[in-house]
Amino acid sequence: MLADCHIHMVLDGVYWKDAIARHKDGVSEPFVRSTLARYQSLGASYLRDGGDRWGVCGLAARLAPQYGIRYVTPAFPICRKGHYGMFIGRAFETFSDYRTLVSEVKARGGSFVKLMISGIMDFDRYGVITDAPMPPALVADCIALAHDEGFSVMVHANGDAAVTAALRAGVDSVEHGAYLSDETVCQLAESGAVWTPTLVTIKNLTGCGRYPDEVLRPLLDYQCRAVKLAAQKGAYLAPGSDAGAYRVYHGQGMLDEYALFADIFGADADGILARGIEKMMEKF
User: Which of 15, 22, 106 is CA-nearest to residue 56?
Assistant: First the structure.
């Protein structure tokens, strides 16, 4: 089966503000249907959305069975106020606020909780992440509450500090996971969490002129090496393109991510990804 374990239906790979504006007067059903039809034509049968605060992913989840697709969504991502994720998610200041948001995920039929606990890769500066990670104690409390409410937890996390905190708290999947040390990769493998490394978000930027290739190429090399080590250690790896991110187009991004795994693992790629997808579908 083909799957994309990390997409954003609300975005389109071009310009995020225009993509969001498409739904300003209500979710565009024609856009959602055409995107689902594209995935269907490629043979995708499982999609996991990273969420949005406008309800686009919710409509996609309701329509997806018509296209033979199992579609899961957190309803919306949850982030701290003043930190990365506010452009697409819902923010909390106090733990009581967070508890209320988790209750809203449940009321809106979300399948899991998505927690934003770090910034993103700075594509202009190698080795830099754009925001400080969420404090480990808060990460642990947030994941524990979500689990108590019956949800699996997906974390957007880059860097050792964020990923290690999430793994120690029993997170179910790690998204992106840039700049992990070998020690953290081993910890991830031992944890049983699924890693969705979204390699194509880096690869598809190379050569476009928006960011320096002298940053992008070593970053992609670093990530591919970490992914290879993770597989050697027995980690669960899932294909996720972050479709909707800049230059990562729905459907094609999925194919591009599979191609990158094939570059890394050759003939073993299909088996590695099938194992990760199976675990992902168990958890989510």
Answer: 22
Of the candidates 73, 7, 5, 67, the residue with the CA atom closest to the CA atom of residue 36: 67
- How are the residues of the chain apportioned to helix, strand and coil, as percentages rounded to the nearest 5? 45, 15, 40
Is residue 283 a contact partner of residue 147, using CB atoms and an 8 Å limit?
Answer: no
- Give the whole-angstrom CA distance, residue 112 versus residue 121: 25
55-64, pLDDT tens digit by residue?
A: 999 999 999 9
CA 117 to chain centre: 12
Alpha-carbon span 162 to 165, nearest angstrom: 5
d(CA 153, CA 133): 17
Distance of CA 278 to the CA centre of its chain: 17
- Scored b (16 or more CB within 10 A) or e, 215-224 reads bbeebbebbb
Q: What is the pLDDT of residue 189?
A: 98
Q: Give the three-class secondary structure for 41.
A: helix
Q: What is the pTM of this model?
A: 0.97
Give per-residue pLDDT as tens, 147-167: 999 999 999 999 999 999 999
Q: At 188, list the tokens.
A: 């991830």
Burial class (CB in 10 A: 0-12, 13-18, 19+), 21: exposed
Residue 72: strand, helix, or coil: strand
The token pair at 49 is 């959305």
Amino acid in position 192 = G
Whether 173 and 85 have beta carbons less than 8 Å apart is answered as no
Q: Can you read off the two tokens belonging to residue 75? A: 């309803």
Helix or strand (DSSP H, E) at 199 = none
| Distance, CA of 158 to CA of 174 (rounded, Å) | 9
Strands (E), 50-89: 70-72, 77-80
Q: How far apart are CA 25 and CA 153, in angstroms?
A: 31
